[in-house]
Design a protein that fits this description.
The protein has 12 helices and no strands. The chain is mainly α and 256 residues long. It has 2 domains: 67 residues, no CATH class; 171 residues, no CATH class. The longest helix has 30 residues. The radius of gyration is 27 Å and the shape is globular. The structure holds ligand LBIIBCTY. The ligand CC(C)=CCC/C(C)=C/CC/C(C)=C/COP(=O)(O)O binds next to helix 7 and helix 9.
């Protein structure tokens, strides 16, 4: 019966560490396997071929990513201080839930539609119509990414959120963070506000984002990616900006 030692030697160990992933990908019997090369010749033949070195990179990237995700899970759990009534900051949970509603899709959609119905100036109508377009685009994009990535919400999350749709059982990216970044960038660009109010808008976006982790709804990477996505999405909205010139039928509809 072969001893563990002899089977390690057969894989070409000989006291030197071996990258099993490479060996097992090619198989010990493959004609160009490192083991065969060592059997065939001197030190030059024992060196790893260039294509094998290239194949090492994905595993290093994989290890780096897994470590990052592990840190993300660990830190997000520690920061989930309002995840339940009994958590360290459980008494702040009701306030966090108010902040959650302030970044929810329903109030923003209803508020924008209400504003559109009430607006009498064409400039206000144009801005609000584009805000509505931005909010809908954001909902669709977040739903698509959540459906593709299918990352589960943190285990410490209590699923007691105000109005959700089916993909909201997934957590990547945070829809609240995406909306917060998108809406705040939109407001800063299209509303004339005094500096303190502009600061307040940015603070609101940050507080909504941080509260997602504190409530235990998300891991930090969900929120960070959400913020980036929302920020980038605003550029798309600006690029596709709807106006009476490029969408006359739409504006005619709202001016009736
Ligand atoms: C018109 C239409 C389909 C409205 C749906 C509005 C709605 C229910 C949006 C969901 C908002 C929500 C709960 C997002 C989840 O946010 P996370 O930060 O937890 O990802």
């Amino acid at each position: 019966m072969p001893s563990p030692r002899s089977s390690r030697d057969r894989r070409g160990g000989g006291g030197r560490p071996e990258f099993l992933s490479l060996v097992s990908q090619r198989g010990p019997g493959a004609p160009d396997s490192p083991a065969r090369r060592r059997e065939a010749g001197g030190p030059a033949a024992a060196a790893l071929p260039e294509e094998d070195c290239m194949k090492l990179n994905p595993s290093f990237v994989g290890i780096a990513l897994s470590s990052l995700l592990a840190i993300d899970l660990w830190a997000s759990k520690r920061l989930g201080v309002c995840a339940a009534e009994g958590s360290a900051w459980g008494s702040a949970r009701p306030l966090m839930k108010v902040i959650e509603v302030s970044g929810h899709g329903v109030p923003w959609l209803l508020g924008t539609c209400y504003g559109l119905c009430q607006s009498h100036s064409s400039a206000a109508r144009e801005v609000l119509l584009n805000l509505l377009f931005a909010l809908l685009l954001d909902l669709v994009l977040v739903a698509v990414v959540k459906g593709l990535v299918k990352r589960q919400r943190p285990t410490h999350n209590k699923m007691d959120m105000f109005v959700t749709i089916s993909v909201d059982k997934y957590s990547f990216p945070s829809g609240h963070a995406t909306r917060a970044a998108l809406v705040s960038r939109f407001i800063l660009r299209h509303l004339v506000l005094a500096v303190p109010l502009r600061v307040l808008v940015v603070l609101w976006a940050l507080i909504v984002s941080i509260s997602r982790v504190m409530l235990g709804r998300h891991n930090m990477t969900d929120v960070l990616f959400g913020l980036l996505l929302g920020y980038a999405l605003y550029s798309v909205v600006e690029y596709c900006w709807l106006s009476p010139l490029n969408a006359p039928a739409l504006f005619a509809l709202w001016s009736r």
